[in-house]
Amino acid sequence: MAQTDEIRHVRLFRNGRNQAIRIPREFELPGEEAILRREGDHLIIEPVASIPLRALLAQWEPIDLDWPEIDNLPADDVDL
What we know:
The chain is mainly beta and 80 residues long. It has a domain at 12-59. It is built from 1 helix and 4 strands; from the N terminus they run ββββα. The strands form 2 sheets. The protein has a two-stranded antiparallel ribbon. Strands 3-4 form a two-stranded antiparallel ribbon. The longest helix has 7 residues, at 53-59.
């Protein structure tokens, strides 16, 4: 993360109907997405933490349900 003494002057520009900013390489965020939030007059940009599927599933509680039995029905005939 950038420390508070790392400050750069950047330019704002229009990209269609959106206002955009060029982020200098030394402030580059990892990944493809970020979270943008407003705190008063400040805009805060934070990277979205990427969680591998295996780690995400490990966080979930087991599902304790009685699943219904499903009959193995024969496949429908299809004319090709």
